[in-house]
Amino acid sequence: MTEGTTSAAAEGADTLTRLEQEGEIAADYLEGLLDIADLDGDIDMDVEADRASVSIISDTGSRDLQKLVGRDGEVLEALQELTRLAVHRETGDRSRLMLDIAGYRARKRAELSELGAKAAADVKSTGESVRLKPMTPFERKVVHDAVKAAGLRSESEGEEPQRFVVVLPA
User: Fold this and answer.
1) How many Cβ atoms sit within 10 Å of the Cβ of residue 108?
2) How many domains does the chain have?
3) Whether residues 125 and 44 fall in one domain
């Protein structure tokens, strides 16, 4: 192995260790939150796409956890930000941690991938660009990825919170 390969492998291992540490800090923070709110839930940690991923799941059904998701994921987004701040406080580094509660984000990702693929199909058949409704940064990213997978381009336009995706013809 060359020196460059060794340092790249070491850097990858350091990144994984750092992301695992972010996940541990987030899990501790979220466990405390669940205790305070007197909610049952298990914490699942992973590293996906160069970011720590933490999920709160429940064996007893996700009805109680829905309170932590809120309408259209608003509470989930706020909890994700608070969790990122808790990680930042401990590590001094900005976190890109993703939080999912009761599978909400996973279901949303599937719906948005379908929306992006459908928009791309519409653009391919009509040759006209398609403007989608305003979305959060997470939602736009999922749609952009689906459009790219369909072989087309897309752009985000507008100002937050009214920023939206435009799917463009080839």
Assistant:
1) 19
2) 2
3) no
Check whether 21 has a pLDDT greater than 70.
Answer: yes
What's the average model confidence in pLDDT over 134-159?
A: 96
Q: Give bridge partners of residue 45 from the DSSP assignment.
A: 54
Which one has a higher pLDDT value, 23 or 6? 23
**Token pair belonging to 78:** 């706020």
Question: Where are the alpha helices (H) located in 38-91, listed in sequence order?
Answer: 66-69, 74-91
Residue 62 confidence (pLDDT) above 70:
no
Residues pairing with 47 in the sheet: 52
Residue 165 pLDDT > 90: yes
User: What integer pLDDT is reported at residue 7 of this predicted model?
Assistant: 59
91: tokens are 């590590």
C-beta separation of 102 from 118 below 8 A? no
Task: Tell which residue, 48, 50, 39, has the closest CA to residue 102.
Answer: 39
Above 80 in pLDDT, residue 69?
yes
Q: Both 49 and 79 in a single domain?
A: yes
**Is the CB of residue 115 less than 8 Å from the CB of residue 132?**
yes
158/129 Cα distance (integer angstroms): 16
* Tokens of residue 154, six digits: 């897309």
**47: its two tokens:** 């590293």
Rg (CA), the chain: 19
| E strand or H helix at 118 | helix 104-126
